[in-house]
Design goal:
about 5% strand; globular; 3 strands; three-stranded antiparallel beta sheet
Length: about 375
Amino acid sequence: FEITPPLLSVSLRQLLVSSLDWIVVGTLFYSLLPAVENLGYIQVLSIFFVANALGVLAHVPGGIGVFESVVTVALSQYLPVEQILGAIIIYRIIYYIIPFLISLAYFVITIARSNKDKIVKLNTRIAFIRQLLPPLLSISVFSSGLLLLLSVVNPSIIHKYHWLGELVPLPIIEISSIILSVSGVLLLLLSHGLFKRYHNAFELTKKLLLVGMLFIMLKGAEWEISLAIGLVYALMLPCENLFYRKGSVVGIKYSLGWLLSLSAALFLMIWVLFFSYQDVDYDHSLWFTFSPDSHVSRALRGGAIAIFIVLAFVVRYFSSRTQLKSPQLDTPSLKQAMEIVAQSPSSHGYLALVQDKSILFNEDKDAFLMYARAGHCWVV
């Protein structure tokens, strides 16, 4: 590969544009913070730059969790934590969510305009939507799993327990927290199976979504999350024929990007857990405390279960990734194959002479198949 470095003029323009971009974004973040003595523009800009640099070095998508942690720690001596988090949330919406929605709308309009002749036809339009549904459902299920995990480690709104405790006994609330933790992690894992269109992942996901809808109400009457998960479930119902692949979802080959997303989700869950209960002194007895107000105990147990399941999945995944070796082609087999090829009207069989493939003979030894392993596939 020959890599040509950019011209000096191009490099200077890139440096100028990127510097202006960071200054503008840093100014936006500064404008979202309330005015405080001893906290100037340059200080906020410096903290903002360092937090984003650490987020990039951490290789976490969008620096999520890392950026929030650094900014919160650095600014907590000047501002209350809730004001800092409020500014961070608005910054994320302005700088990430809104541009994403605008670009997504532009992308859809561009695709629609460039394919307007095809979109007129109903079959083409349905085929276009069908191609988008599995990835969109995969993202939705991943988000649903993350919501369930965050609901486990985040303290429930206190006033909900005044009437919930009268209707639902404490053991059910405790069990609900554990079930939500398990369901949330499994939804994160199954989302990749949906992306790969596995039927088993589809069936398991439907059941877990129903479980999440039920137990999120029993755990804290969080009807908003239950409604969101119900919407994802309703969207999945007419899409069963899109998930046609057979096989175990455990042996799916996961991409690096998806593994990083899973790590970021777990990191966010742990960060929310520690941030929500930063004023609670840790004690071993918290693990065995059961009461309607022991939110931290339920959060610890749920977080630990989620981490344990992920670790078990990692061990199971890498133990199942043993590479199967194709049998080597020996000289007698090659000679026998050439005898068959010599009697064949086709010359394709001479590709066996390359000796980069394995051969499978039939019982009568008068025909054979050539095959090779290519990544995750066996090609004949």
